[in-house]
């Protein structure tokens, strides 16, 4: 009983700190350890992606932008701002039906892919800004765009250390796009939903042992104990097999190492994008030696997959609460009996 009470108190403490952090000090709105912004009478100062921007308020809010990464699309769809996107890269990896409608209508233009962006087309679109993850090999592309008067905003949400920090990027996008109030409401709703789900999951005493990811070649990239996946499993009241690791990323381990750690695993999550257990087994016959493969439950993130696109990597980047809700439904199905998984799908 005491452990349960302390866990509930801890959840509300985290949420309270989260609110305080977002409000920030000295006028800063703090999104994460590396992202914050502050506005004075005529300048919006934004620190993000290793860069500091002093953006004149006369040029804000942005009306037309180009997105160079599919993961950023989720913020615009969550805010209902698809029509403010002038161009997008790699549209085959975009899940949003509204985005594809606009692409088909010529309202959004294809500006290439992460192998080669069409710089001439981006410049011709005359966007107010380009939003992108910072990728070192495209530094020359960024500099060329800036020489042509286009502001390049780096938003590296994929580097964040917890799921709600990714959700908080709604605040940055909302501020830049003139939807600050809407973004704040959306984020508060996600944060509060997440906190309520953590409390719900804490009521269960049984914590199933959980394995994550799969083999790639000769290595199993097992998420570290301080990774986003580990945090989600913990918040869903699962017992992650690598929780003791201090790594924030993934650890490259051999099959034998993972096999030894996962002997008691009952659930296997994020097992690629396979269509069946046999399909998974064909990628590595050693899986048949694992108890979790033969008698446990296995889940992929393919519930909302369409051809090359997957909404888990789009809206799932923003909706931390729905990802957590999936995990709780998987680990403790009795807690959410009427809930159908949003992003995950059980392998049969």
From TrEMBL:
GO biological process: cellular response to iron ion
Gene3D superfamilies recorded: Nitrogenase molybdenum iron protein domain
Transmembrane spans: none
Chain ranges of the Fe/B12 periplasmic-binding domain: 64-335
Pfam families xrefs: Peripla_BP_2
Protein name: ABC transporter substrate-binding protein
Species of the source: Marnyiella aurantia
């Amino acid at each position: 009983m005491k452990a349960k009470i302390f866990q509930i108190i801890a959840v509300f403490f985290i949420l309270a700190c989260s609110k305080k952090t977002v409000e920030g000090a000295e006028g800063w709105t703090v999104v994460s350890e590396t992202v914050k912004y502050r506005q004075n009478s005529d300048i919006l100062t934004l620190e993000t992606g290793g860069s500091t921007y002093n953006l004149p308020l006369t040029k804000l809010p942005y009306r037309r932008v180009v997105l160079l990464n599919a993961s950023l699309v989720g913020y615009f769809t969550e805010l209902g701002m698809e029509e403010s996107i002038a161009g997008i890269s790699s549209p085959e990896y975009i899940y949003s039906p509204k985005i594809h409608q606009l692409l088909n209508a010529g309202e959004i233009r294809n500006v290439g892919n992460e192998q080669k962006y069409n710089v001439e087309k981006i410049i011709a679109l005359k966007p107010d800004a380009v939003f992108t993850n910072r990728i070192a090999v495209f530094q020359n592309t960024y500099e060329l765009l800036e020489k042509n008067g286009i502001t390049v905003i780096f938003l590296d949400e994929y580097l964040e250390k917890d799921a709600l920090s990714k959700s908080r990027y709604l605040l940055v996008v909302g501020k830049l796009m003139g939807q600050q109030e809407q973004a704040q409401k959306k984020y508060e709703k996600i944060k509060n939903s997440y906190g309520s789900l953590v409390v719900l999951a804490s009521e269960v005493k049984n914590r199933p042992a959980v394995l994550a990811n799969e083999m790639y070649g000769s290595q199993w990239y097992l998420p570290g104990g301080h990774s986003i996946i580990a945090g989600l499993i913990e918040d869903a009241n699962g017992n992650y097999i690598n929780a003791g690791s201090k790594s924030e990323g993934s650890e490259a381990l051999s099959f034998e190492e993972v096999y030894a750690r996962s002997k008691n695993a009952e659930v296997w999550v994020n097992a690629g994008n396979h269509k069946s257990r046999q399909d998974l087994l064909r990628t590595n016959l050693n899986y048949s030696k694992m108890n979790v493969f033969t008698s446990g439950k296995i889940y992929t993130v393919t519930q909302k997959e369409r051809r090359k696109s997957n909404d888990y990597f789009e809206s799932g980047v923003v909706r931390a609460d729905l990802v957590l809700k999936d995990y709780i439904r998987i680990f403790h199905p009795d807690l959410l009996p009427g809930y159908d998984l949003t992003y995950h799908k059980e392998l049969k």
